[in-house]
Amino acid sequence: MNPLLQTFNTPHTTAPFSQIENKHFKPAFKAAIKKAKAEIDDITDNSEAPTFKNTIEKLDFSGYTLDRLSSIFFNLNSAETNDEIQKIAQEVSPLLSEFSNDIRLNEKLFNRVKSVYDQRENLELSVEQTTLLDKKYKSFARNGANLNDTDKTKLREIDMKLSKLSLQFGENVLAETNAFQLHLTDEIQLKGLPDGAKEAAKMAAKEKELDGWLITLDYPSYIPFMTYADDITLREKLAKAFGARAFQNNKHDNQQIVLDIVKLRHERANLLGYKTHAHFVLEERMAETPDKVIKFSNDLLEKAKPAAEREFKQLSDFAKKDGIEKLQKWDGAYYSEKLKKQNFNLDQEALKPYFKLENVIDGAFIIANRLFGLQFKEVQNIDKYHKEVKTYEVTNANGDFISVFYADFFPRKGKRNGAWMTSYKSQWKKDNENSRPHISIVCNFTKPTETKPSLLTFNEVTTLFHEFGHALHGMLANTVYPSLSGTSVYWDFVELPSQLLENWCYEKEALDLFAKHYLTNEPIPMEMVQKIKDSANFLEGMQTLRQLSFGLLDMQWHGAGESPETINNVKEFELNALDDTRLYPDVAENCMSTAFSHIFQGGYSSGYYSYKWAEVLDADAFEYFKETGIFNKETAKKLLDNVLSQGGTDKPMDLYKRFRGNEPSNEALLKRAGLTK
Ligand SMILES: [Zn+2]
């Protein structure tokens, strides 16, 4: 039998990695899709009247084999891929989108869902069931299921145009990014750059068979140059090239595309009965409405602006000593770095011996134990996809099995960059069984060498805690329905557990548990940690203003500003939208929106605010721990009962209020960021 079609529900039957061969994937996908289709038919062919149980609940438990298989396959495609797997991904992706389209457009199924939805007041459903019903109904309605045929056609046309336009937007940004290069032939032009950056510039030149050095608009080349290069003329040239991307009235210009996208998104929202695109998006967010996002942003802006202006003046004064009369955008990163060095002189390398990977992961386990009573036991009997992966069995204080936990720490060929949490099996309850999850974190940390163990940078330490926070959200899940379990929450709520966990990395009481020199065992000097804290907050007012400016620009484009029909000048619109948050003089030949890929290419439209939103949440939540003790069991239990175990079973704001007692306040963030003085 195909190993991918076997079930694995308990700790002792996990994903059968060692039996899987690439040839198994395609047939397994075909069989699993067939099975999922049959499960849907089973719902729609039922001659009994639609009920919550025979329709909504059944729908949520349908396609289980397919979901599990997709998890295995796409997780491997990220963590342990090769050409063959990538080719299979290309082949199965259309099958999967065809299948999900079939469900979305299945009128018989929608009619049953709608029939249950229309009776929802009389069904005496639990909160979780109400949430599930709402979610299932909206997954159809938000895609046009309630529209008449003419409007359905219209919607499909808009969607097609939008997907073409965002693709074109991205291609233009890429083309413009690649079209520029700064070719330097005199080493003096690279003065100030660290050796690594110089080396990379030399390699880039060599690749194009050029002498000297090449600087490009790709971040790994652009950012170091803007941060360290002493040559102000070159920094200006590079910054202006970066800011002019897709705003040069050539064939890669994005101005018309931006206008078209916002108009079509607006039209789409109206067609579905929403006032604006932002209203449409925010319906499924913790923030709920554009008004709330605007209020949230303006409130923070008002409080952070004095600090930002103070910092800007401080930075300007510092640059004046260098003869800079008026601080410009291309001076920002450069003088910030210089001033930071002068103020802190932080040596990141000196910290690494205190953060041996094994100690840090143990620290995370101890903290999870002190807070939630969890025990992590490394075991060898769980099948893995690579020998470097570590496997754990997680139990609670009563010894009950809670979760399987995989941890995959080091970079290798076939693993994509970054760090992430994922799962091989979600948690759910059915027929008196609470089926526990299989959770994984994947990272790219500093590898051990022959003479040294893996010693983490502080940034890697917080990354580990971040992913571990997501993992706890997955492991501690305790819901009935799989689609509401664990991290299946609105995405402006999903970073709460992860960012919250990071806070423990800065606390003496927590660091004392694990941050010990790997050779001498001496505890980390707290003044070093304080330095990290202070330097992390350096120029935080300016940073806050910058983040808020992007979020506000996004909201202006998608609903809070004038109606998209009347906007006809991208630059003018943007200038207006950025008016309250501007620190540096505007650069006339530059435009942010034409290269703002987050909102015009990717899925962040009306969502950019969530970065700050998540920070406010985690600071406010951690403040509660600080008030009651960072290892306070009752506070931890409130977090567990109301947030970590609850997944997406209720409105995030209600879950949060049950944990915290109030709605989140931005005071804790302002205090943590040193912006209250
Ligand atoms: Zn995260």
Key descriptive features of the protein:
binds zinc ion; 27 helices; globular; five-stranded mixed sheet; alpha+beta; two-stranded antiparallel sheet; single chain; 677 residues
Structural overview:
Helix content is 55%, strand content 6%. The chain contains 27 helices and nine strands. The protein has a five-stranded mixed β-sheet with strand order 3-4-5-9-6. Strands 1-2 form a two-stranded antiparallel ribbon. The protein has a two-stranded antiparallel sheet with strand order 7-8. It is globular, with a radius of gyration of 26 Å. The chain starts with 24 loop residues before the first helix and ends in a 5-residue tail after the last helix. The structure holds zinc ion. The site of zinc ion has 4 residues, from helix 17.
Query: Which small-molecule species are bound to the chains here?
Result: zinc ion
> How far apart lie the N and C ends?
67 Å
Strand order of the largest sheet: 3-4-5-9-6
Evaluate the radius of gyration. Answer: 26 Å
Describe the oligomeric state of these chains in a short phrase: single chain
The portion of residues assigned to helices is 40-55%
**What's the β-strand tally?**
9
What profile does the largest beta sheet have? 5 strands, mixed
Strand content: 5-15%
Low-confidence stretches: none
Overall geometry: globular
